[in-house]
């Protein structure tokens, strides 16, 4: 069949967005990998699928697939693009949109045509909720890798994140440590790996090696996880500007039990269709 899609990005984290409300189609893992393939397909970090609501308290269901075909529980940059997509396609005229994902319900607030604010829900810290193989919850964990011990933060934003503090993101060993930690046995469902440089109490630089996609130009849940870890360690406070290679995000967190609120850009690149 010929599948219509919209190519979008949020701070350079790019997506193929597919409306499966107006198009009746079942996407198999190999279709996802084709859509995401930058040579044989369209090319993206994640494929976002718009589905009808499965419960009365939400407006849509939103499924997220990494380029390797694996399904993820949450995607922050994708959530903002999702909000813009469903309004652009007249699937809703709401400016406050509630969406069910595999990681829980999130609320999208369309600020103006480009900027969207997302209530990402509260972070989870219990090891079994991340998941992380650790005896008890801790402010940071030590993970053994290639004969070294690495200190890192670990938490869930619906999806799992590990965060390492580094002196300079430009010098960070993202290409080697990223894949090694992504698949480290301490993270039974793999993990997204953030490398955070603290610029000031309200500003960080961040690079993220994403589970199932590799290093991306931005990671919304990764930005949330890094700020939560930085605030928890006393390095950051309040609303934090996160500078990523593809752009910047504003992340706010008022502490334990409170939701993380992310604000950032959205962009439509092109519309297309592909035979699958
Ligand atoms: N790779 C992530 C999903 C995409 C998250 C990221 N693109 C974001 O903006 O949050 C995972 O497997 O949990």
Question: What does this entry look like structurally?
Answer:
- Keywords: Amino-acid biosynthesis, Cytoplasm, Isomerase, Lysine biosynthesis.
- This is Diaminopimelate epimerase.
- Its EC number is 5.1.1.7.
- It comes from Kineobactrum salinum.
- One of its GO terms (molecular function) is diaminopimelate epimerase activity.
- The chain has 276 residues and is α+β, with helices and mostly antiparallel strands.
- The chain folds into 2 domains: 123 residues, Diaminopimelate Epimerase, Chain A, domain 1; 132 residues, Diaminopimelate Epimerase, Chain A, domain 1, CATH 3.10.310.
- Helix content is 16%, strand content 42%.
- It contains 4 helices and 18 strands.
- The chain has an 18-stranded mixed β-sheet that branches.
- The longest helix is centred in the first third of the chain and has 13 residues.
- The protein is globular and about 50 Å long.
- It starts with a strand and ends with a strand.
- 45% of the residues are buried.
- The model has no long low-confidence stretch (mean pLDDT 97).
What are the bound molecules? 2,6-diaminopimelic acid
What is the class of the largest domain in the CATH system?
A: Alpha Beta
User: Strand count, sense and closure of the main sheet?
Assistant: 18 strands, mixed
By CATH, the architecture of the largest domain is named Roll
The CATH topology annotation of the largest domain reads as Diaminopimelate Epimerase, Chain A, domain 1
Order of helices and strands: EEHEEEHEEEEEEHEEEHEEEE
Q: How many individual domains?
A: 2
Mean of the pLDDT scores?
A: 97
Unreliably modeled segments: none
Please tell me how large the radius of gyration is.
Answer: 18 Å
Main location: cytoplasm
Protein name: Diaminopimelate epimerase
Catalytic activity: (2S,6S)-2,6-diaminopimelate = meso-2,6-diaminopimelate
Binding site for substrate: 13, 46, 66, 76-77, 159, 192, 210-211, 220-221
């Amino acid at each position: 069949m010929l599948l219509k899609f919209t190519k979008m990005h949020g701070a350079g984290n790019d997506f193929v967005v597919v409306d499966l409300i107006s198009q009746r189609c079942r996407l198999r893992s190999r279709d996802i990998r084709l859509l995401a393939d930058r040579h044989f397909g369209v090319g993206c970090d994640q494929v976002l699928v718009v589905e009808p609501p499965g419960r009365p308290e939400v407006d849509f269901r939103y499924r997220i697939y990494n380029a390797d075909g694996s399904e993820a529980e949450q995607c922050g940059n994708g959530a903002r693009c999702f909000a813009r997509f469903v309004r652009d396609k007249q699937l809703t005229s709401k400016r406050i949109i509630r969406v069910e994902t595999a990681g829980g319900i999130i609320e999208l607030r369309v600020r103006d045509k480009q900027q969207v604010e997302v209530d990402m829900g509260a972070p989870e810290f219990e090891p079994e909720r991340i998941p992380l193989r650790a005896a008890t919850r801790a402010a940071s964990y030590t993970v053994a890798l290639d004969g070294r011990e690495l200190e890192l933060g670990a938490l869930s934003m619906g999806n799992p994140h590990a965060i390492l503090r580094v002196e300079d993101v430009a010098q960070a060993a993202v290409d080697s440590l990223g894949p090694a930690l992504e698949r480290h046995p301490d993270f039974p469902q793999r993990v997204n790996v953030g490398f955070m440089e603290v610029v000031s109490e309200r500003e960080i630089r961040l690079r993220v090696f994403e589970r199932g996609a590799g290093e991306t130009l931005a990671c919304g849940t990764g930005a949330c996880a890094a700020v939560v870890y930085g605030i928890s360690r006393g390095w950051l406070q309040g609303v934090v500007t996160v500078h990523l290679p593809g752009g910047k995000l504003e992340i706010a967190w008022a502490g334990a039990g409170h939701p993380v609120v992310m604000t950032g850009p959205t962009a439509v690149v092109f519309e297309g269709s592909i035979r699958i």
